[in-house]
Write a structure and sequence with these properties.
The protein is mostly beta strands and 263 residues long. The chain has five helices and 21 strands. The protein has two domains: 150 residues, Thrombin, subunit H (Beta Barrel), CATH 2.40.10; 94 residues, Thrombin, subunit H. Keywords: Hydrolase, Protease, Serine protease.
Length: 263
């Protein structure tokens, strides 16, 4: 697929708008800057060993701070103190977020970590996403357009130096398209069977996206010229050549039930 059909609602009709390769590529600088602020790498640090687990998204919700990811990402973690979520202050000093609580549901593949926001975090390049930059109507989005932008930490972009307890990580931002929306289970499926468009405007063979589970998936809203979080990249179905994306609303509902229901 090389072009994108975007449906724009009019008073009496729906007009199809085609967006070309150049337009998709031109949006990457804006997308990468935005999405990178809310993207983190989740590590397991135990017995002087570092293990890269997956990706996660930063979320501010009802004046509390969370990292949301998939349950399969952290299922091997026995204690919240084993989780490392690095961030850099003043471009050189590395710190790890303090996890206050860890809750997950493995059958639903949802995990939420509550974070203690430290004073030095404001001097990092990361930010917790406000819910006003989300779209919880996933079906409504795919009824209008098929554009998807993803940004995560692939396993192949993570190099761990256990001798010095150091880590080098690279992100992978790319664009792909909606394959189908399963209304029965509420999941969105994206193409991963051909090529994807990179931040440099190139088409590359399907990348290995292992390690990107738990990262935000963004929709692009042509009429507003803006990006919004619509879901979480959850699974890579290799044989079916599809990525599975869970609606962001499922994670919000989980937070409400498990962190705010007793307040």
């Amino acid at each position: 697929m090389r072009f994108i059909g975007n449906l724009k609602e009019g008073e009496m009709f729906m007009e199809e708008i085609i967006i070309g390769h150049d337009k998709l590529a031109s949006m990457f600088p804006e997308f990468k800057e935005l999405s990178g602020k809310h993207l983190v790498r989740i590590l397991k640090i135990k017995d002087s060993k570092i293990e890269a687990l997956g990706s996660g998204g930063l979320l501010k919700y009802k004046d509390r701070y969370f990292v949301i990811t998939n349950a399969h990402v952290i299922k091997g973690v026995e204690d919240k103190g084993e989780i490392g979520i690095p961030y850099i202050v003043n471009d050189d000093c590395s710190f790890s977020m303090e996890v206050l609580d860890m809750k997950f549901n493995l059958p639903d593949d949802i995990a939420v970590l509550e974070i203690n926001l430290k004073d030095n975090f404001v001097r990092s390049k990361l930010e917790f996403l406000d819910v006003c930059f989300m779209d919880t109507d996933l079906k409504g989005y795919v009824d209008r357009t098929n554009i998807l932008y993803l940004h995560g930490y692939p396993s192949g972009g993570t190099n761990i130096d256990e001798d010095n307890m150091g880590i080098e990580i690279e992100t992978l931002p790319y664009c792909t398209f909606v394959a189908e929306f399963d209304e029965e289970i509420g999941s969105l499926y994206a193409y991963i069977n051909d090529e994807v468009i990179t931040e440099f405007g190139d088409y590359i063979p399907t990348p290995v996206v292992t390690g990107m589970s738990g990262s935000f998936v963004f929709g692009y809203y042509l009429e507003e010229s803006t990006f919004r979080v619509i879901g979480i990249l959850t699974a890579w179905h290799i044989e079916d050549e599809r990525l599975e994306i869970y609606p962001i609303q499922e994670f919000i509902d989980y937070i409400d039930k498990n962190y705010f229901s007793n307040l």
